[in-house]
Structure of tRNA-2-methylthio-N(6)-dimethylallyladenosine synthase:
Amino acid sequence: MINLVDYKNERQYKTVFFETFGCQMNKLDAELSLGLLQEDGYSIVDKVEEADVILYNTCSVRQHAEDKVYSHLGALRTLKKKHPDVIIGVLGCMAQKDAQSIFKRMPHVDLVCGTRMFTRLPELLLKIRNHGNHVLAVDEDEIVDVKRIAAYRPNVYQAFVTVMRGCDNYCSYCIVPYVRGREVSRTIADVEREVLELVSNGCREITLLGQNINSYGKSLPGNITLGDLLIELNGIEKLERLRFVTSHPKDMSRDLIRTMSQLDKACEYLHMPAQSGSDRILKKMHRGYTAGYYRELIQYARDLMPTIKVAGDFIVGFPGETEEDFQETVCLMEDIRFQNSFIFKYSTRTGTKAAELTDDVPDEIKKKRNTTLLDLQKKISLEENKKLIGRKLQVLVEGASKSDPNKLSGRTRQNNIVVFKGQPALVGTLVDITINEATDLTLFGTI
C-alpha cells in the first residue's frame, strides 16, 4: 500500500513521453492521463531520450497496431540498459488483453496498465519509482471516474467527452467488449457539468464519445437516450457544435435521427460503420442488421438532413468472404457515397467468436480488395468534394494547416477539412469560406 503522505509530497521535476495509438477514445484517455500527470508535476517531452517516463497508450482492434507497439518497445531495450531508472509503461487495450504476457515478452517494461486503471497513473508510477518492481494494473471491475482538468487539452476550441464506456454487442470479429468491458453510461447531469466547464474554458465544439454511443442511457434509470442528452446539451450558451461517434447501425434509431435534424447545434455528420455490404457476411459478423436496413437508415437521414455526410468502416477478407460478397460491399459503397471510409484487412483477434472460423481468404486477395475499396472511396470523395466548389460553407477555424503553416485550417459542420488564407486571430472562430478547389481529402477556399 502506498503511503499517501509520501505520494502527495512527491513533487520532484519529472518528464513524460506519451504516444497514443487507435481510436478517439484512446486519444481522450491520453488527454485525461496527461492532465493527471501534469497535475502531479510532470512535463511533457517530444523525444523518448528526454523522458523519465515513456508511456504507450495502445490499441488491440487490429494486429498491425499491436505489432507497431511491440516494435517500439523492442527499440527501447538499449535505452533501458543505459538508463535503468527510466520507467516504460504500456497502457490501454493491449495492456488489458495481454496483461502479464507483456512482461514475459518485454521484461524491460515496468508498467502494464489496463483500460480502467489509467486514472491511478501517478500512484502507479510512484510505486515503481519507490519499489522498482513490475506493476500490473488491469482490474476489470474498476470504475473509470476521473475529474477532467479542462485546461489540459490540445485544442482549446474542441473537445472529446466520454459519455459511456464499453460495448455489449460482441460482434464476432471485435475485441472491444473484452478489453473495454460492458456498457456503462454517465448521467446527463455529469456529462453536462463537464461540457459546461469546457465551454467556460473556451470550447466551442464537443464530440461525444462511446464505443456504442447509440445505446447511451441503457444502464441508466428512466429510459434515457442519446437524444435526451443531445437536447440538454443543445441548450448550452456559447457551445456552437455537437457531434457524436461511433454509431452502430443496429442501435441507431429513427428517433435519434429526427432529434439530430431538429437541433441547431447537432452537426450533419454520421460515422456509422457498415463493415460489409453482404448480408451473409454481416450475419457471420453478428452485426444485427442487413445492407438494406443500412441503406434505409441513411436515406431517412438524408431526407431529413439533405446536407448530411456519412463516414463508414469496412473489413475485407472476413472468413468465408467470396468475390460475390465483396462485390456487394463495392455496391454499398457506390450507393451510399461515403464522405470517407476506414478500410481494414481482416485479422484474427484471439478470444473473439470469429477466431474460431478458418481465416481462409488469402492475404493477396485481402490486399487486392483493400486497394479496390480505397481507390473507389478516393474517387467518390473527390467527386463529392468537387460538388462543393462555389459553395459558401461555415468553418470552425482550428489552427495552422499541417500542409501549409502559412494558411489556416478548419472543419465544416459535415466534417470536411478546409484550408484557406487568414489571420491567426481567426483561430477558434466561425468563418464563412467560399470553396474554389477540392481534392479527395481537402477543400480549399477564401474568406
